[in-house]
From TrEMBL:
<protein>
    <recommendedName>
        <fullName>DUF2283 domain-containing protein</fullName>
    </recommendedName>
</protein>
<dbReference type="InterPro" id="IPR019270">
    <property type="entry name" value="DUF2283"/>
</dbReference>
<dbReference type="Pfam" id="PF10049">
    <property type="entry name" value="DUF2283"/>
</dbReference>
Length: 73
């Protein structure tokens, strides 16, 4: 797993494998927090496996130390 973070966009991406091959994402499923502030996007392949998650509004959901230590995308 690998986490990257873009502080300007307040967006983090968690890759569940080593890398995501170009073209391997079949579709993206969107989830919104009922309380607002964070949107979660799950990238899924053609077999239904989740390849990664994008957190929009990451500061509302993820540990600040985790974001501070994450490299830029």
């Amino acid at each position: 797993m690998k986490l990257t973070y873009d502080p300007e966009a307040d967006a983090a991406y968690l890759t569940l494998g080593d890398t995501i091959a170009p073209g391997s994402i079949s579709h993206t499923v969107e989830f919104e927090s009922p309380a607002g502030g964070t949107m979660l996007l799950a990238d899924v392949d053609t077999n239904g496996r989740i390849l990664g998650f994008e957190f929009i509004g990451a500061q509302h959901t993820l540990d600040p130390a985790l974001l501070r230590d994450a490299p830029l995308p």
